[in-house]
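In this section we walk through a basic example: taking a raw amino acid sequence and producing a predicted 3D structure, encoded as discrete structure tokens. The instruction is simple. Fold the sequence below.
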Amino acid sequence: KQAGLMEVLKKEVRAMLIAAKEGLTPAQLEKQYMAMVCKPLPLRDLGFHSTLEMVTRMPDVVQVSSCRNGTFILKAIADDTTKGIAKLVTCQKGRTHTKMWRKTATKANAASPSKNSKDPQHSPMSARTRVLPVTVKAELQDLLSSSPLLLKDLDKAFLRRFGRAFPYRQYGFSSVLEALRSVSDSIAVVEQTNTGSLLVLRKYLVEREEAPQASAAEMPPLEPICETERGCQTALTKWEPVETQAVGLGDHLKRVSVVMNASITRKVFIQPQDSRQFLPKKLTLTPEIPPDAVQDRSLCSLPPLKRRCLVGVMVESIVSPSQFYVHICSRETSYKLQDLMFEMRHLYSYKFVSDQYIMPDSAVQPGQLCCVTVSKWWYRVIIHRVISDQEVEVFYADYGHLQVVQKSWLRFLKWYYLKFPAQAIPCSLARVKPVEDKWSPAATLLFQKLCRFKELVGIVDEYVDDVLHLFLCDTSTKEDVYFHSVLKDMGYADVCGENVPSQEFKELNPSALYIQPSGKQNAELVDPELCLQQESLDADSEAAALKLNGAEPCDQ
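The resulting token sequence is shown next.
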């Protein structure tokens, strides 16, 4: 299975790197893979701890080189089938760049009174309209998406985040401020007298201006009010604040607005006291456990699917044909899960934020919903058991598997990420049972090969003990392939008249233990966005039912 996954991954990585003439950093490769495949690089499935470790195991696909600033650049090594494409991409981009430069240089020389003039305003570089590339602009937006940043700290933060200095000179800008003015449509430079200019995403400023003023009593109960002994009152929201300094405190009540992550403003009221004791200190507003940290709540499951409806699924975690998990493939669920993972990565990657959600030992208990970092991505998990002082076993609510991780990798889950239902659905192949007491390794291996790396059509049969029994069909081939038929024809399975409860899920079903029902317990209810078709009475569904019954007669 790993060998097959590695071969597919090599093709995908080579394709992405060939399209990038200058190469990609490991972080950029992760982003492009997520955008193309809609899920992270399968590092965990292949036993890798990082993207860099993965590409070093692909010497025939990826060339790894390092820059002086310590950044690693990944470039494609073309094979016989892609050499032509690689050459075409290289030549096309090179010629386009050359033509543009010659054209620009000609115009610049014509406008210049002296060919050898040292006036920067008449140089070929200055004659062009200076713009930052889309990729650099996106990196700036990414950097500011979690919290505003002082202008004087931009270079240091950019280097720490992306492994290289902010490349404004490379694109013809004489200063950082000039480069930022070229992206003024998305990034605002807020002038401040004491601490210097502040960089803020413009959309957050717009949202702050449009947001209605609300008193502390009007805040929802999930966003409580904290009061300190000195009279600091904080209207808590779903994002945490950056630290600020109390400056210019007089004899009157002062209100300091602290710019919040994700366009939320926290208001801090400071009672009049001796201002001198505040000036050299920073306000510490972070409680021991953030009020929006999930402590005693559970994720909800997706609503049950209607019998005989057809849904697109991806099989994620397989133990046997009677115990596996699936994802529903739809625009709604796929995009939302992708957005969730990006948001969690952006938020928890900031040490200031991540440190606030460190879980004390008293909170690391079985059943606790939290999140874990693996290869820089963050996943929603439930603690299944505590193994030692350093390790715990967790259940991945959106993928369906158990894994042992380090305690230090865990963080409290923010309340905001509780809303999205758990995406992994426990399933069993409908109307079949193993020819012996248990599924043979060969039967499980065959089932894994049938399910691997493809979107399948699932025909919902029924729920038995909170486990979805469904038929699986591969429609990517010329003839539809029904998996229960393949297992029967290979002598691994017997077809039965009714569904046999999954023995494996009887022994352990983490979803039933830790995931709450969606509230729609009636099997006839279904979220319409999850189904590709709802055709229990129309001709297509009848045809599918006849084909299933005709191919595999049940003992009725």
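Looking at the output, two observations stand out. The first helix runs from residue 2 to 18. The chain has 17 helices and 22 strands. In the next section we compare this with other chains.
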